[in-house]
Write a structure and sequence with these properties.
Layout (H helix, E strand, L loop, with lengths): L2 E7 L4 E7 L8 H15 L9 E7 L2 E7 L3 E3 H5 L6 H20 L12 E4 L4 E3 L38 H4 L6 H17 L9 H10 L5 H4 L5 H10 L11 H17 L21 H17 L6 H10 L6 E4 L3 E2 L9 H13 L6 E2 L2 H4 L9 H8 L3 E10 L2 E10 L4 E11 L3 H20 L15 H11 L5 H17 L4 H17 L3 H18 L4 H13 L3 H14 L4 H13 L3 H14 L9 H7 L3 H8 L6 H13 L3 H8 L10 H8 L4 H14 L6 H13 L3 H13 L5 H6 L10 H18 L5
Parallel strand pairs: 8-10, 8-11, 9-11
Antiparallel strand pairs: 1-2, 2-4, 3-4, 5-6, 6-7, 11-12, 12-13
Length: 779
């Protein structure tokens, strides 16, 4: 392991540690060259959980490294054969996983993860030691060079690290980052139980146990260990590396999720884990296996917090939908009067709004259901597509100066009529119509659905007939540029005439946002969106759309901490709402927690499988390399201008270059999609165009207000080989609080950047950005 000395840096006046290369390596030039290369690479890392390397030097022909001096103890000394308390265990493991993610992003494999190489400072901060240095592998370009392996140093001596080796390491196979994750799994097992998972009297028997035997289930050694932690450890200890976690970021996400759920005391579930009790990652008595499976199954059945893609697809295939799900379809205009056609969508919106005040129901947004306008729809087919148990629709007829409305509710599974009601009002008194509509739903339908209890009584009522008519007319208008501006004019007039009606301010806030983001409204429209949403919430705290839009606005203006707190509160108060899970996923994406964002996206889609508004979840999955799942979300809005813009980015990350080139041809020429960048990058002979586009982007990127766009443009530039421009845009995005930490570690398009010192600085800033959001109390 070499010799370590404490020393003082007389130039900078700091205490450091000096670690000299072991003497038996001095004659191996290839190993020394490898030592120097890896030490230089490691020295570029500036991560709070990795011991800092200040310098590489030489004394009388013997190389040494200058490291930061640490005060504390090793994890090995802290364990001392005893299990660790769960809160401390989770905090320590999260820090280790974070360090490994940063290390692997640089292409460095530690190869000697063990408690002795994990240091815990007096303040509780974890520091990973000896990365890339403790075990120096044979240079792959020189078969005659000798490999230094401190795990098998002498016959008859039980080494300290053989038990932490991965199966592929023991078989002298080519290693990748997953080898470190196996070793980390061994460490976690020891932290959880106080003993090592693989036992033996000597090196040979110990390695044989690791290669061929199954360790006892942690729960049998420490009854306080939760099933979720056993699952994490079990997945890390898979002997087949393809069955393990594929990167440290995934492992960190599941540890964070478990820690958060234990701290909040809410139900616990971990997604993207193959619960392998039955296929025996651990040995355990049949009783334990049954109880573990029952416990996990109960959690999975009772909580829809972070359901995975497999669960979603299985339920959809079975045609199941939770009983509390309902969709409101556009009403039929049986009078044929085109002047009253706007009521088809307006009344459906009003009904959906009434239903959202039930804490029990999960109501599909009418933006998703408005395409179901035909009179001869098959209720069961529509219900399956929307994944709901109940449909609500109806028709209306204008007779003279009166409007007669009939509402009908259908049970999707049985295709039977659940409830029907009719009422009428003067065509000059639409407020009365709205009042009767709300009354009929609350007194008639909700009791039948078992949703009458727990109604939230914060809804505001319209007070001005003209204003309310303008509001209803605006609901029927699309979000395309010109209709959206017309709707804004209507709503501005409506809110001036009736300044106490919350839904009108909510609708106006959403329209302003579209005007800012998709048209020419700019920052002025964005500020108006904030004010309108704030006014809606002040009038009625339970306007979910306004609350969600305000979170989105805060995210895009770098107020991540406020947005995160608000989104978490929304999920706690309305866990049945797909919309609030999506809102939280949006915040997490910007906060650099792409894995957690993906979990919330899965939760949202499982609750509301047909909602095209969840399409932007594609970015979260793209950034962590899950291109198939990214494509699943893209298909929610297949064929749209937005989908055509995103598709090439997914294909590039999947390394489908030819298909990406074809997809670019389907992109709009709208300048905001930057088709010219992809054309210049992917078409042969366009290097001059690429130089021009890269220069223009770095000069004019601030004209786009959303920092996520800067990051995505930077990833394309990185793939195209424009490193300086890419680093410039990505750094700007991080500085504007698009933290991107998980994305920087995992995004396939950034492979060309990860060897640069500038990238390391951005990675450090991204990590600090993420930590500021995740742990604001420590900042």
């Amino acid at each position: 392991m070499g010799v370590v000395y404490e020393a003082e840096d007389t130039r900078l006046g700091r205490h450091v540690a000096l670690k000299f290369v072991p003497g038996n390596l001095l004659g191996d030039q290839k190993s020394l060259e490898r030592f120097t290369r890896e030490a230089r690479a490691a020295s570029q890392l500036n991560h709070p959980n990795i011991c800092i390397i200040h310098d590489i030097a030489d004394h009388e022909g013997r190389p040494f490294i200058v490291m930061e001096k640490l005060d504390g103890t090793s994890l090995k000394a802290q364990l001392n054969g005893q299990p660790m308390e769960l809160p401390k265990l989770l905090d320590t493991c999260i820090q280790i996983a974070d360090a490994l993610a940063a290390l692997h992003a640089k292409g460095i494999i530690h190869r000697d993860i063990k408690p002795g190489n994990i240091f815990v400072t007096e303040s509780g901060q974890v520091k990973l030691l000896d990365f890339g240095l403790a075990k120096l592998l044979r240079d792959p370009g020189n078969e005659s060079s000798q490999a230094y392996d401190d795990t098998l140093t002498a016959m008859g001596v039980v080494p300290g690290t053989a038990v932490y080796m991965s199966p592929e390491q023991a078989r002298s196979e080519e290693l990748d980052a997953r080898s470190d994750l196996f070793s980390f799994g061994v460490v976690m097992y020891e932290m959880a139980t106080g003993r090592k998972p693989f036992q033996g009297k000597n090196v040979v028997s110990m390695l044989d146990a690791m290669l061929h035997q199954k360790p006892p289930a942690p729960h049998t050694l420490n009854a306080a260990i939760p099933a979720e932690l056993e699952a994490i450890i079990g997945k890390s200890l898979e002997k087949d590396r393809d069955q393990r976690y594929q990167n440290a970021s995934q492992l960190k996400t599941d540890l964070q999720h478990l820690k958060r759920e234990r701290e909040t005391g809410s139900a616990k579930i971990i997604t993207d884990i193959n619960f392998r009790f039955g296929s025996h990652s651990f040995q355990g008595p049949p009783q334990w296996q049954r109880y573990a499976l029952l416990g996990v199954a109960a959690v999975m059945l009772t909580v829809l917090v972070a359901v995975g893609a497999w669960w979603f697809k299985t339920r959809m295939a079975a045609g199941q939908a939770p009983k509390n799900t309902i969709a409101v379809l556009p009403l039929q205009n049986n009078s044929g009067d085109p002047n009253a056609d706007y009521l088809r969508f307006a009344l459906a919106d009003e009904m959906a709004s009434v239903l959202t005040y039930s804490r029990v129901l999960d109501v599909r947004p009418t933006s998703v259901t408005r395409k179901y306008v035909a009179a001869d729809l098959d209720p069961q087919k529509v219900g399956r597509e929307l994944h709901v148990a109940t449909l609500l629709g109806g028709h209306y007829v204008r007779q003279g100066n009166r409007i007669l409305v009939t509402l009908e509710s259908t049970d999707v599974q049985s295709d039977k009529l659940l409830w029907e009601s009719s009422f009428n009002a003067s065509s000059e008194d639409l407020i009365s119509l709205q009042t009767q509509l709300a009354s009929q739903l609350r007194q008639g339908l909700l009791p039948i659905l078992g949703a009458a209890n727990g109604l939230i009584n914060t809804a505001t009522q319209p007070k001005n007939q003209v204003a309310y008519d303008l509001f209803l007319r605006s609901l029927a208008m699309s979000h395309d540029t010109q209709p959206n501006k017309q709707a804004i004019a209507m709503l501005e007039q409506a809110t001036t005439m009736d300044p106490t009606y919350a839904p009108a301010f909510e609708a106006l806030g959403l329209r302003y946002y579209y005007d800012s983001d998709y048209s020419n409204g700019g920052d002025e429209a964005f500020q108006k969106s904030d004010k309108a949403c704030e006014r809606a919430i002040a009038l009625d705290p339970n306007r979910l759309t306004a609350a969600g839009q305000l979170v989105v606005n805060r995210v895009e203006r770098a107020e991540l901490t406020k947005a995160y707190e608000s989104a978490q509160e929304q999920v706690k108060s309305r866990p049945e709402s797909a919309r609030v899970h999506f809102t939280l996923s949006y915040v997490l994406r910007y906060a650099g927690m792409q894995e957690r964002s993906a979990q919330e996206c899965d939760a949202a889609l499982a609750l509301d499988p047909a909602n095209y508004q969840f399409r932007s979840c594609s970015w979260a999955f793209m950034d962590i390399g899950q291109t198939q799942r990214a494509d699943d979300f893209l298909r929610l809005d297949a064929g749209s201008e937005w989908a055509n813009y995103v598709e090439p980015s997914i294909l590039l990350r999947a390394n489908k270059i030819s298909e990406a080139r074809d997809a670019v041809k389907r992109m709009s020429n709208n300048p905001r999609w930057h088709r010219d960048l992809l054309e210049a990058c992917l078409e042969p002979g366009h290097s001059a165009d690429l130089d021009r586009v890269a220069k223009d982007m770095t000069a004019n990127y601030t004209t786009e207000l959303d920092p996520e766009v800067w990051y995505q443009q930077g990833t394309i530039l990185a793939y195209c080989g424009k490193k300086d421009a890419a680093l410039h845009l990505i750094q700007a995005a991080v500085q504007q609080n698009y933290c991107a930490y998980s994305a920087l570690l995992s995004d396939p398009l950034l492979a060309n950047l990860r060897s640069s010192a500038e990238f390391d600085k951005i990675l450090t800033a991204a990590h600090e950005c993420e930590q500021t959001v995740a742990n604001p109390q420590t900042q």
